[in-house]
Amino acid sequence: MTSTANRDMRPTLNKIAEVTALFWVIKIISTTLGEMSGDMLSQTLNLGYIVGLTITGTYLIGILFFQIRSEHYRPALFWGAIVGTTMVGTEISDMLDRTLGLGHVWGSVLLLSALLATLAVWFRHRATGRLDTLPPGFVLAMPKRATAVH
User: How far apart are CA 3 and CA 41, in angstroms?
Assistant: First the structure.
């Protein structure tokens, strides 16, 4: 039986960047790069949202595989994951809005609901000590933001 105190004493790996003013500058640049890259694939290169999502999703899965397996903070992996989540989020939000015709309001409602459900699952698993990776809701938060501002 594992007590809460014992669970809180287990070593954790810090694989995220230190949050400073420079963090937020890099975050804005990375997010913008991800949105521009997602739009470039689907719109500028005329690949469409499904192909764009396939490409960006593959990139994100690959970068998360290495980021999660890494034993230490690796800036390139961390910021690559940030760019990847934004690319995927851009493709999802644009596909919901333009391909599925949900528009900004219903797309935002759908994604906010998905984010809240994902965070509820994450918090429940985190309380049991079974989840020690980035919250899955992080990926879902990006398309909600992208849909809401376009």
Answer: 49
Domain count, the chain: 1
Residue 4 located in a structural domain = no
Do residues 140 and 118 touch, judged by C-beta distance below 8 A? Answer: yes
Looking at the domain assignment, is residue 127 inside a domain?
yes
CA distances to 3, 21, 65, 95, 116 from 24, in Å: 37, 5, 24, 28, 24
Residue 10 in domain: no
pTM: 0.71
Give residue-wise pLDDT tens across range 4-56.
444 444 445 677 778 888 888 998 999 999 999 999 999 999 999 999 999 99
Domain that holds residue 81: 17-149
